Amino acid sequence: MAGALRGPSDYAQEPTRHPSLRINAKEPFNAEATRRDLVASYITPVDLFLKRNHGPIPILDDIASYYVSIGGLVDRPAKLTLDDIKRLPKYNVTATLQCAGNRRTEMSKSRKVRGVGWDVCALGNATWGGAKLSDVLQLIGVPYHTEITLSGGKHVEFTSVDQCPEEKGGPYKASIPLGHATNPAADVLVAYEMNGEVLKRDHGYPLRVVVPGVIGARSVKWLNRIDIIEEECQGFFMQKDYKMFPPSVDWDNIVWSTRKPQMDYPVQSAICSLEDTNAIIPGEVTVAGYALSGGGRGIERVEISTDGGRTWSGAVRYQKEGVPYVPGDVTSDKWAWVLFKTVIDVRGDTEIIVKAVDSGANVQPESVDTIWNLRGILNTCWHRVRLLTIHNLRSLL
Amino acid sequence: MAGALRGPSDYAQEPTRHPSLRINAKEPFNAEATRRDLVASYITPVDLFLKRNHGPIPILDDIASYYVSIGGLVDRPAKLTLDDIKRLPKYNVTATLQCAGNRRTEMSKSRKVRGVGWDVCALGNATWGGAKLSDVLQLIGVPYHTEITLSGGKHVEFTSVDQCPEEKGGPYKASIPLGHATNPAADVLVAYEMNGEVLKRDHGYPLRVVVPGVIGARSVKWLNRIDIIEEECQGFFMQKDYKMFPPSVDWDNIVWSTRKPQMDYPVQSAICSLEDTNAIIPGEVTVAGYALSGGGRGIERVEISTDGGRTWSGAVRYQKEGVPYVPGDVTSDKWAWVLFKTVIDVRGDTEIIVKAVDSGANVQPESVDTIWNLRGILNTCWHRVRLLTIHNLRSLL
């Protein structure tokens, strides 16, 4: 270990955070950007990027003695230093990481769910720099495109150095299937850079995993170990959390083992230029936000309705400012969100709805009720905001 | 060419078909099984499997002179006989092929669409036997996992020997991305068997392509050519059909080039033990059908509602009779549908709704209106059937 281990309640040395963040929990620190900050740029500044933690932020400042242990069902276990990782070919992958709990607060309004409350900004889009996990695994003798090793390994487990509360089983852990990990085209990274800078402590310094197209919970920070294992990781956050149950399951009848850990996520969009309720002067209103989908599926279209979903009009989509988004273009950032913008003329009180369709023609559900689940994950229902003209808003006060 | 070419209106020598098929168009022949026939078995009998054609069925009976030409942007063009293909390792892949127009008739009830009308049975699940396309391409010098060749090839085009009407550009053609074609795990086959028997004429004898997880229109039958090309196929069925437009686009404002050819398809389910309207005697009613999703995403759950979608209960899912379906199980048939069954107690007139959720938490849309498109493809809205008690049905007559 290359730094002082911090007990699960030692929050004395947390990093300094940007004052504009919306803090949803202080210890462990969980915070998101404001809506307007989030979509001000295609690449999310590090300071404004989703902070999602289950314990204190580790301090790993003795880089000379830091290493990642690679073991489990492998012939040649290894200890790789940061320099070993940096000697592998470096890739820059622009990928959006979204917490499975994004938009949980809204789901809780339908029926109470458990978990940290999140508005619509529990995600961020960054350019991650690092080695491909497939190259790291090749170093220790696991070839590209291996689904099962000779010794029966089928999953790759990542273990953090962080300290989660005891009931959550110590260090944070997660796994992904070996075939995913060893597929160079899946762009799974062992990353040491974020937006061209050295990874910050809040985001996993010195090394983290980035699994594009998959819920954020599998992109383990402050990497301590990588293990090839036979079955999927048995850690708390794989087996007792981040699983999607039907609306009929509640805390009195849940059987965790009946569902698999969530990986891929469905198409999502949200309006970020407006809050849930807005006071406006009638006239032109900008409707802007983000849309994304899991599994590398691009966004096919983003649509806006002002009549309750009866009719829809398209919004302009873009990636970098001025660079139009081309659905199906293999050179585009397939793991990244698209931003959208449109201007509508508002005469009176209006509800604005956004929904997106991905390249697989997958859609967002109209209502939250059919996807409600007790842990409040994957809320991807149509996103609705209300505009109240100043006159009517006053009459409400 | 290893048989007599048949003009686009020469329907004199069509194969004999099963008398129970529901015929949606005679020339070209388009037919589907009845609902009950379709879900009577996990593997769809060849005779009852969706027949989807754009021209007369070719006759390729001189196998000694039959070959597939492989060319385009390759260093070593080749002509492969059926025996050449059979000498490659043989794979059996159980995959459901679904026509993008499945459930089109239902979409047309919301607002008229163009195209052959289909009930809910424009699909079938078969075990396809053949060589992997990735192995065929390796034979001619294109390695596994190639996204682009040295000469700039990025797509693989399949050309049939069939003769579509002139306005549809002659032989049927389609392409898939090269990275997909050269990925052995994608299980794209050059197939010569269906359910353990030699491919029948109606299904592509002597050779067809099977692209699992993708709309049926890309699985070209009666294979004549395989070409490595720079851009995606420019044929009619790629560029002027099988694209998904938003509901706001109609025949007077369509710009075909603004959308990409559909590949992946979204989560789908339908009830097949019942017709749209059923006369019943109050009591136990079996609700059975199929659920599937594109891109190799498995089915997470199938749910039934009898109160308009307010509450839902789960249905039993299975693959082979007696073999339960395990979501996330990598040993299961990832490209295949699951069948489901439940029994409900019906007291009076009832609407039964089914919907499914896939492993990526993708959902089916509640209403057809938000996914309506002028070509009537990808109708995946909640499937609804009505039960009318005998007494009430009589009163309607």
TrEMBL record, chains A, B:
It comes from the Eukaryota. Gene3D superfamilies: 2.60.40.650, Oxidoreductase, molybdopterin-binding domain. GO terms for molecular function: heme binding; molybdenum ion binding; molybdopterin cofactor binding; sulfite oxidase activity. Residues 54-236 form the Oxidoreductase molybdopterin-binding domain. Its cofactor is Mo-molybdopterin. Keywords: Heme, Iron, Metal-binding, Molybdenum, NAD, Oxidoreductase. InterPro entries: Ig_E-set, MoCF_OxRdtse_dimer, Mopterin_OxRdtase_euk, OxRdtase_Mopterin-bd_dom, OxRdtase_Mopterin-bd_sf, OxRdtase_Mopterin_BS. It is an enzyme of class 1 (oxidoreductase). It holds the Pfam family Mo-co_dimer. Pathway: Energy metabolism; sulfur metabolism; Sulfur metabolism. Residues 260-387 form the Moybdenum cofactor oxidoreductase dimerisation domain. Its EC number is 1.8.3.1. GO terms for biological process: sulfur compound metabolic process. Residues 1-27 are annotated as: Disordered. GO terms for cellular component: mitochondrion. This is Sulfite oxidase. It comes from Oryza brachyantha. The gene is LOC102715719.
